[in-house]
Amino acid sequence: MLLQNGRIIDSANNLDCIGDVLIEHGVVAQISQTPIDFDGDTIDCTDCIISPGLIDIHVHFREPSNGKHEETIETGCASAIAGGFTTVCTMPNTTPAIDTPELVIQSIETANAIGLCRVLPTACATLERKGEQIAPIAELVAAGAIAITDDGDVVEDDAMMQAVLEQCREHNVPFMQHCQDPKETLGGVMNAGKVQQELGYGPWPRSAEESVIARDIGLNETIGASWHAQHLSSGGSVTLIREAQERTLPISGEASPHHLLLTDEACKKIGTMAKMNPPLREKHDIALIKEGIVDGTITILATDHAPHPLATKELPFADASFGIVGLDCALALYARALLADNTIDWPHMLAMMTVQPASLINRQDLGQLRVGDKADITIIDPNCQWTIQSEEFSSRARNCPFDGWDVSCKAIATIYGGKIVFEALGSRIARCENTQ
Ligand SMILES: [Zn+2]
Q: Is-catalytic flag, 365?
């Protein structure tokens, strides 16, 4: 298969040029700035971007689920490829939680049998995510867990956190922290501030996030594990991470579409669809998160794709579930948040969705476009105007606060291991009858 005349962006290798990419036997066979002569299927990529397959290191696919089926690995993967993602890291807060090697292997095998995209499961830091007994981290990593996290909950106890970080360093696996001190968020459902006081809902202060980051940086100072802050919401968190990085500590962080595009005002306008964990903050938080992205403090974009049945969103604000789905529309939302106002450019944004997440999870074989690499490729039309309509999502869930938003960028083909797993190419694709 030949991808013709696209803007090839491979941030890892400083490549940004117009050219062709040839895929043969599932791998990238040739990258050329002059047209490649090829007798087979072709995709006209004129005015489109050819990128390494997008990676999302933070998704919830809810399988195993104990019969609830808010999402499955299959519907989650379908949602991922519709959004241009070829690799996702699933969070272990399933039912049961992913805290045994068998459950890690089961996730990988289920995803492999489906074959739509690469699923790299994370596994628990503590048994059942209860924070009481450390999980068998060595065995979980040996089984294929790509990172360790109790996401959904923080690892609260200092001694436990220290033990987990030591294990993560020993087994060369990143730890991903859900930064929420539960003592500060009791009854909290939205950002502590003016809007929250007006609405009369329980307050969730920024310090609940920042205090965990500060504590973990302190604990990790002498351990030196790879420590990653999930879904940053507070501007103060960015400052803490920047200061730690200046002392060359291996600390990283991720930003999510909703924390870049929405503020706590949304809780007033769209109610529970704006209920998130951590909560939507204020304009100055968005400005500081963007500053962190520009100066390289925040290196990763991740959705925190969190499917919930609509019934659990159609409850009073205090009782509704936290979170939204993100995979189907994330790319367009990042483009709106970061490219529309020239915060960063395409190569920088794609680095945050390809080589940077790959590097965090120690998968240097992913997130790049080199001859010989597995052909995981996303073709992006950066000028495709469309309206986000959650009822058209491939995800099973519909909890999306961006419903009805007009956006202007779309993944039009997702190629996983050399195979087109999703496409909206129209007449851009020409299939050759001589090839299979
Ligand atoms: Zn979380």
A: no
